[in-house]
Specification:
- This protein is mainly α and 195 residues long.
- The chain is 72% helix and 0% strand.
- It is built from ten helices and no strands.
- The protein has helices at residues 9-27, 34-41, 45-48, 55-76, 82-99, 102-110, 117-144, 152-164, 166-169, 178-192.
- The radius of gyration is 19 Å and the shape is elongated.
- The termini are far apart.
- The relative contact order is 0.12.
- Residues 33-52 bind DNA.
Length: 195
């Protein structure tokens, strides 16, 4: 469906995504209607369908974009020396990237269940790629003799869960700044993998 001449798709599209993300994170996907999203953006409900076929497609787009941005940013992140340096880089990167996107992280974990099987599989595959990056670091650390852990897959899941948890409690201007949090978490991860 074509947009009307003079429409501001480069403005409205991102506003729809931002308001949907905010509303889904605050009230839950199931509780938010397309009409509420439209009202928050300041457009008629029918106008949303120029940008997305339905609410689930909007959620899927938000989750997929988040994972693709995460993977792209990690691909560009400079690595430390050896597996231990790469692991420290991963820990700090994960916290830094996700603290700036706490709503997207929340949606990625809490609203994944609202996707149909095909969309769920796409997001799971993207997650698997990211988790695979950490597991490869852990395996390299084992091979180098720098890390000691009984199961790299389990360690991967535990580390990601621990690092992602920062987004639920961290508040800017709180007792600890971001760099201090990164350093403390790096120390905990290092000890957890017997580095």
């Amino acid at each position: 469906m074509a947009r009307k001449t003079g429409s501001h798709s480069e403005i409205t599209g991102p506003r729809i995504r931002a308001e949907a993300s905010r509303l889904f994170a605050r009230h839950g996907f199931a509780a938010v209607s397309m009409r509420q999203i439209a009202a928050a953006v300041g457009v008629q409900a029918g106008a949303l369908y120029l940008y997305t076929p339905d609410k689930e497609a909007l959620l899927f787009d938000l989750l997929k974009t988040h994972m693709e941005e995460l993977l792209a940013a990690w691909a560009e992140a400079p690595r430390g020396a050896g597996a231990l340096g790469a692991l420290e880089t991963f820990v700090r990167f994960h916290i830094r990237f996700n603290l700036m996107r706490a709503e997207a992280v929340f949606l990625s974990y809490m609203e994944l269940r609202n996707l149909n099987a095909a969309n769920f599989a796409v997001i799971e595959a993207l997650r698997g790629r990211y988790e695979g990056e950490l597991e490869a670091i852990l395996k390299a650390g084992q091979a180098e003799g720098a890390l000691a852990l009984p199961d790299t897959k389990l360690a991967t899941m535990a580390i990601i869960a621990m690092l992602t948890g920062v987004t639920t409690w961290y508040r800017e201007g709180g007792r600890l700044d971001r760099e201090t949090v990164e350093t403390i978490y790096w120390d905990m991860v290092r000890k957890a993998v017997a580095a």
